[in-house]
Recover the amino acids of this structure.
């Protein structure tokens, strides 16, 4: 069982930046896809960005050009650099990984079989 642990959340002013990290208990070289999601109270979990096994990245329109997803060379840490933050970016942020090649698009939560516990981001 792979464990994912997010960190880097916090409170930031509008227009500010945060860099979230997601540490995996083992390398994600064998993952099919890793991604970042967020969830606000009363809303569903929203896919923000993902990297597939070939290194291709995907972004939601709501964060494209503001957020950047990346991995370290060992692929055991996933990052989400968030710039130009807005109040509507306030949410709990989660990282997730697909280790079994499940079906579904990159933003489909059902595809992911490992999740972190989340880190809170508040923009005001």
């Amino acid at each position: 069982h792979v464990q994912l642990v997010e960190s880097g959340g916090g409170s930031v002013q509008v227009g500010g930046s945060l860099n979230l990290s997601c540490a995996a208990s083992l390398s994600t070289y064998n993952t099919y896809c890793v991604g970042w999601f967020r969830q606000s109270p009363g809303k569903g979990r929203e896919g923000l960005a993902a990297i597939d096994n070939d290194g291709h990245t995907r972004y939601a329109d709501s964060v494209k050009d503001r957020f950047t997803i990346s991995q370290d060379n060992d692929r055991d840490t996933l990052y989400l650099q968030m710039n130009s933050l807005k109040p509507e970016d306030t949410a709990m942020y989660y990282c997730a990984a697909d280790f079994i090649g499940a079906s579904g698009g990159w933003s489909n939560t059902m595809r992911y079989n490992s999740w972190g516990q989340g880190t809170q981001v508040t923009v005001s």
In short: The chain has a mean pLDDT of 93.
